[in-house]
Specification:
By secondary structure, the protein is mainly alpha-helical. The chain contains 6 helices and 4 strands. It is rod-shaped, with a radius of gyration of 42 Å.
Length: 168
């Protein structure tokens, strides 16, 4: 039994074993610093607040390996660039929806400048007979020329007197 312990002790005391141990510890230290650097780079891409970035890096620095693991669990799911791109897409869709209307007949999306629905052919707006501009359905008269399409035009009176007036 003593010879087994002596053999193990000789292996541990050998310079090759010590060199292997130092190389292993050096690799662990390099991995730890690489994880701290990765935490910093990733936090800058995902978080806007510099204080939160500093806390994430310090946690990774002070708690080797565990700090990076905690950051990896708690980090935001998307990059800042992805979040900004998504916000721009949402704004673009909102603007598109504000521009688009729905046809009252078929419900198909229509643009505000359409005069008729391209799907069901229902007239959406009319044209002013005087200036030939598009009129909205709720308008009482044409705002461009002042023409009122609902008013019936009466022919002007003739200059010649009628027979009834001639008799006098």
């Amino acid at each position: 039994m003593d010879s087994l312990f002596e053999t193990i002790n000789k292996i541990i005391d050998s310079p090759v074993w010590k060199l292997s141990l130092y190389i292993f510890l050096f690799c662990l230290a390099v991995l730890w610093l690489a994880l701290v650097f990765w935490t910093y780079k990733d936090a800058r891409k995902r978080v806007d607040d510099p204080i939160i970035i500093a806390v994430a890096v310090l946690t990774s620095l002070l708690l080797p390996y565990m700090g990076t693991l905690v950051y990896a669990i708690l980090r935001p799911a998307e990059y800042l660039a992805e979040a900004r791109e998504r916000e721009l897409e949402v704004r673009a869709m909102e603007q598109e929806l504000q521009i688009m209307r729905a046809c009252p007949s078929c419900g198909e999306a229509i643009r505000p400048d359409y005069v008729a629905c391209p799907s069901c052919r229902r007239p959406l707006r009319s044209m002013c007979p005087a200036c030939e501009r598009v009129l909205e359905p709720g308008w009482k008269l044409c705002p461009y020329c002042g023409h009122d399409p609902r008013v019936k035009r009466v022919a002007p009176p003739l200059d010649e007197p009628t027979e009834m007036w001639k008799a006098e």
